[in-house]
Amino acid sequence: MLSEKMEKAFNEQLKWEFYSAYLYLAMAAYFDSINLPGFAKWMKAQAIEESVHAMKFYNYINERGGRVELHEIEKPPVEWESPLAVMEFALAHEQEVTRRINNLMNLALEEKDHASQIFLQWFVTEQVEEEDSFGSIVDQMRLVKNSPEALFMMDRELGSRNIDFTALSQETQ
């Protein structure tokens, strides 16, 4: 059974994961609007991945006898200065998610909630991958300084990412 503190914190993280999905859809829409379909596709895949993460929290709260509470999700930004600014914003967002996951882990340790510690370990590992992924893209974009040719090549590369809809449908079951 989840403590009241853990349940409240997990519900807050559930909202944050759905916000992340919403944010990445806003970024996809921005990329679509400036004719970078590869970047848009990559962000749509990120949005789906974040929805899967949210459903992991949703299911875990229920499995531990807690009650899921859905909170209002604020509107994400819709405009950015440049494609690089979008990716820098996304990297900063992932760093904030990492901070939040670490805080959840600290709370689980404080509460001596071993099951939640095990559950959260997956997210700790996932955040290392997320920051590395966004960080690599940001580094490459800074290296090429928004060169149209390099941006076109990156767009093609990012567009090759597969979107896994099965992960989302499996997580909601």
> Distance between termini?
21 Å
The first-level CATH class is given as Mainly Alpha
Q: Major sheet: size, sense and barrel closure? A: none
Ranges where pLDDT stays below 50 over 5 or more residues in a row are: none
What does the oligomeric state look like here?
Answer: single chain
What is the radius of gyration? 17 Å
Percent range for helical residues?
over 70%
CATH architecture: Up-down Bundle
Question: What percent strand?
Answer: under 5%
Helix-strand pattern, N to C?
HHHHHH
How many domains is the backbone divided into? 1
Q: Roughly what is the average pLDDT, rounded to an integer?
A: 94
- Please report the total strand number as a whole number: 0
CATH third-level topology:
Ferritin
What is the overall shape?
elongated
What is the structural class?
mainly alpha
CATH homologous superfamily caption: Ferritin, core subunit, four-helix bundle
Q: Count the helices. How many?
A: 6
